[in-house]
């Protein structure tokens, strides 16, 4: 992975995408949907030092109040626009958006090997901060993509349940992102 030294802005304003993927489980899983949710408002900063002895750094802020359900797969019936709105309201409650409206990620170290990097850092979500690692690959000179998994209960978030506990959201939420590095 060889990103040129410099300061870069990333985020939704720079054509970046940040997707969350949730999965259902439980005896009533067939009634629910696996969801693709987009963070429509997020921004960040990437610093790549000219001195290879120095560590690159990454910081990202995501507005939880602007999460949008893009699609739901599975389920007994397709998701309607009303269903998507209801899910978004439920997400706001589960994620405690009124109390902590943003997710923050700040890197603590970057390990680059064979065209990829593991970015270790601290994720602040729902008022709690815990370690999180991002797996990152460079797609071309100015595009990076990556993944991570957030286990909600590690941040004190109780995954959604419905139908008296028969339908459950898997505790682990998969994160996917693509960022275009815009010189800052």
UniProtKB/TrEMBL annotation:
Gene3D superfamilies reported in the protein's UniProt record: Lipid/polyisoprenoid-binding, YceI-like
Pfam families assigned: YceI
Name listed for the protein in its UniProt record: YceI family protein
Matching InterPro entries: Lipid/polyisoprenoid-bd_YceI (IPR007372), TTHA0802/YceI-like_sf (IPR036761)
Homology family: Belongs to the UPF0312 family.
Domain (Lipid/polyisoprenoid-binding YceI-like) ranges: 7-182
Organism the protein comes from: Streptacidiphilus monticola
